[in-house]
Amino acid sequence: MTQINIGISKKGRKAITEALKVLLADTYTLYLQTHNFHWNVTGPRFRELHLMFEEQYNELWLAVDDIAERIRTLDEPAPGTYKAFAKLTNIKDTEGYPSAEEMIDLLTVGNEQVVKTCRKVLKVASEEDDESTLSLASDRMGVHEKAAWMLRALNK
């Protein structure tokens, strides 16, 4: 097999993929949290939140694949275990079964964290002129900013 030659140095690809691995871990952790809350939400807003959380976890599930495939495209292995994600993620695990309002707050914070992680990816990708990763991170950032806004609006 020929060596990768896409105009980004090996060192540059490594820096980008290290940032993307954190984005992957944050996204997967948020996916798990959102799916958990979808299953376990209760209360008078059950249907509304159950459906909203389902929309969000389905979107996150697709994003996980896009991020992992970008890492592979840059010729690095993508993490794929709970242990690896737990080590990399910035999102705290949830204990027990929070109230619906707490779920909304936790998912808001989780989405905002992914936005911050995207900003770090953007910085590294920009330094390496990696337009594909810039596009991916920018798109992800927009999705999570909108999700956080919608979640915040529920608890006002």
TrEMBL record:
Ranges of residues in domain Ferritin/DPS: 18-154
Q: State the superkingdom.
A: Bacteria
- Output the Gene3D superfamilies linked to this UniProt entry: 1.20.1260.10
Molecular-function annotations in GO: ferric iron binding; oxidoreductase activity, acting on metal ions
* SUPFAM superfamilies in alphabetical order: Ferritin-like
| InterPro entries assigned | DPS_DNA-bd, DPS_DNA-bd_CS, Ferritin-like, Ferritin-like_SF, Ferritin_DPS_dom
Cross-referenced Pfam families: Ferritin
Family, according to the entry, reads as follows: Belongs to the Dps family.
Q: What is this protein called?
A: Ferritin/DPS domain-containing protein
Give the source lineage, highest ranks first: Bacteria, Pseudomonadati, Pseudomonadota, Gammaproteobacteria, Cellvibrionales
